[in-house]
Design goal:
By secondary structure, the protein is α/β, with parallel strands linked by helices. It is built from 9 helices and 10 strands. The chain has a 6-stranded mixed sheet, with helices on both faces. The chain has a 4-stranded antiparallel sheet with strand order 2-1-4-5. It is globular and about 50 Å long. GO terms for molecular function: ATP binding; ATP hydrolysis activity. InterPro entries: AAA+_ATPase (IPR003593), ABC_transporter-like_ATP-bd (IPR003439), ABC_transporter-like_CS (IPR017871), ABC_transporter_ATP-bind (IPR050166), P-loop_NTPase (IPR027417). This is Nitrate ABC transporter ATPase. Keywords: ATP-binding, Nucleotide-binding, Transport.
Amino acid sequence: MVDAGVRVSNVSKSFGADGARVKVLDDVSLTIGMGEFVSVIGPSGCGKSTLLKVVAGLIDADGGKVEIDGSTVRAAAADKRIGLVPQSPALLPWRTVLDNVRLPLTVNRRANAGRAIRDPKELLASFGLGHAMQKYPGQLSGGMQQRAAIARAFVFDPAIMLMDEPFSALDEMNRDQQRLGLLEFWQSNRKAVLFVTHSVPEAIMLSDRIVVMAAHPGRIDRIIDVDLPRPRTEEAYASDEFRELERVVRTALHEVMGGAHV
């Protein structure tokens, strides 16, 4: 059996004042194996990003438990075993790209001693940014900035990577280039990944499994296996298997959205 990178057990979360609380997550359970890429998709308000924030330790669940690589979220975060890529790159404009990727290494240097660390220059080269190390974020395209942010998230060689719609602000052509770049990097590194997206093709191309969530309250409706062979390249988009999976996922979304067009 594959070791669990992430184990979410019966997690619930509500927001709002007493008497007007809204349940955003209801009894959510999910296991992501080490080296497994799992995407979460669903309608707005289904709790996708809230689930990711609970797993990241950014917010506490009201009930249930989350384990990361066999440890509590707090212990895993302290050991830098969680990598997080938000929707916005959040690069410091006055630092070079290389210095932005190095930034996590400059915080609490004593605690970082002895930790597994990836070479920032090698990471940038892996994401096709070897030529841009000494440039500033404002000199890069949106896609290049997001790649730099992803490289930064890998600098501590985390056990798991949490990604919250990292390509959502990009146009479709740029987005496709970035997802293929991420896929190529992941296929040679194989971290456990929890990836939030609104894009059906993106979820299929990247994932081993797709978690379809329903809303009001947010819950897992079903999990769809993606049986496309790896390594995957852009040719996969044109395959009959890909198109059939796209039909299956869109049908699932159509059902959880009460028949709304997907």
